[in-house]
Amino acid sequence: MTVAEREGGSSDEPWELPRGWCWTTIETVAPVNPSTTFEELPADSELSFVPMAAVSEETGAINLSARRPVAAVAKGYMRFQQGDVLFAKITPCMENGKVAPVPELAERFAAGSTEFHVLRPVAVAQRFLWYWLVSRRFRHEAQRNMSGSAGQLRVPAGFLRESSIPLAPLPEQRRIVERIDTLFAEIAEGEAALEEARRGLETFRRSLLKAAVTGELTRDWRETNKPTETGHDLLARIRAEREANTSKGRGKRAQVNEPLDTSELPDLPKGWAWARIGDLFDVSTGSTPSRSDPTLWNGGISWVSSGEVAFCRIRHTKETISRAGLGNASTRLHPPGTVLLAMIGEGKTRGQCAILDVPAANNQNCAAIRVSATPIPPEYIYCVLEQQYTASRKASQGGNQPALNAGKVSNIRIPLPPLDEIGAILHVTSELQTAFDDALTELDKSSLDAARLRQAILKSAFEGTLALQDPHDEPASVLLAKIIAP
């Protein structure tokens, strides 16, 4: 093994290369941002247009479906052609691996975001160059050399031009690319299997939740256990206690009083009852102290935003408020065991729930359900709300669900088993949830291992140990000499 010197440079390079390889600069083998003109194209014709979102992370895939007239992209955009390599220069796109080889194009040319650098291979195989640029080793170095203001950091073109690349003989480059493609395809097959397993786990979890709240999960338990009170008895007992507390001034008046119509609700197991959240628990919304008054913030009281209500247990919060921020209403500070429900939010936020493990206040976009004031375990209400979330999202795909409010939350209908059976439900679901979490952890580990394996393959490729070497290949230095020669 020898260390091949860069043309006109020193031998102090990152690692030793095989015989026939050499270090050179990227600009030498692939000019950065070369001039590209559309003059030969009719002005009324259309080209593919590539915004940043059209380039996938780390896969090299480009969505070329967007089209724009030549006249509309002749100025003010990055122009490139088939065979080039696109390199996202702005954060976080570069760190995320938005780097892609440009495939064959019907019009040969295309245009795209000005946040791309364009590299045009002249003495390096396109995919060999792409694999080098998309490797995390190179991207980490590019990240260290970014410049600009926070949030607008970019990789300078000068960095790309002066950066080193280990150059193999051209035939070996092709062998290396073929080997990487084959290995990456095998990894992709494994990842597809992992994703299928992940979907299977999610299907299992949805089935588990449905079985839990319909009584199917504890069918056998009911055959051998007689509860001390029915769900109807439990509902009546809780309502009576709430009414008594209200009359003594120690609680809120029940928020839902009208009879519950169950005519359109599914039948429940014997001993179960339908109830509304407001029949069982006090429901309230929170508030956000004024951001302009610093005395209301950074105190000793945990404060939950709706974004933190994400199917979890809340043991700490991103923000805290002061006693003044809480105000005079002590009911705004909820005890552990309160179930929070996100009422507003795009995407996945609305309808997600969480259990408080610490006393906390919350913002106005969350409903606080005081489950801890009753004998019902908060984990059961959490389970019911999670099941309703997955069911309602599946039923409402493609539509817009209206935002919730305290009244709508109070009117949410839930199945109420006897307390003894709730305990049995939670025992079984806890055990199965542990198995689910363990399986998910293994899938996550396997996915991480696949990502690490890709990087190990790239490391081996550019150190010259991945593909066979042929002593009859023309050395890379000879190829470079032909390019550099006047």
Shape: elongated
Largest sheet: 5 strands, mixed
Helix content: 25-40%
Beta-strand portion reads 15-25%
**How many helical stretches?**
14
List unreliable stretches of 5+ residues. 1-10, 395-399
Biggest sheet, spatial arrangement of strands = 11-18-15-16-13
Mean pLDDT across the residues is 90
Key words describing this protein structure:
single chain, 486 residues, alpha+beta, 5-stranded mixed beta sheet, 4-stranded mixed beta sheet, 38% helix, 15% strand
Topology:
Blueprint: E1 22-25, H1 26-29, E2 46-50, E3 67-69, H2 70-73, E4 78-81, E5 85-88, E6 99-101, E7 109-112, E8 116-119, H3 126-134, H4 136-144, H5 157-162, E9 164-167, H6 170-214, H7 219-224, H8 231-247, E10 273-276, H9 277-280, E11 283-285, E12 297-304, E13 312-314, E14 319-321, H10 323-326, E15 339-342, E16 353-356, E17 360-362, E18 366-369, H11 378-395, H12 406-410, E19 413-416, H13 419-462, H14 476-484
Helix pairs in contact: 6-11, 6-13
Structure description:
The structure is a single chain. The chain has helices at 26-29, 70-73, 126-134, 136-144, 157-162, 170-214, 219-224, 231-247, 277-280, 323-326, 378-395, 406-410, 419-462, 476-484, and strands spanning 22-25, 46-50, 67-69, 78-81, 85-88, 99-101, 109-112, 116-119, 164-167, 273-276, 283-285, 297-304, 312-314, 319-321, 339-342, 353-356, 360-362, 366-369, 413-416. With 486 residues, it is α+β, with helices and mostly antiparallel strands. Strands 11-18-15-16-13 form a 5-stranded mixed sheet. Strands 3-2-7-4 form a 4-stranded mixed sheet. The chain starts with 21 loop residues before the first strand and ends with a helix. The chain is built from 14 helices and 19 strands. Helices cover 38% and strands 15% of the residues.
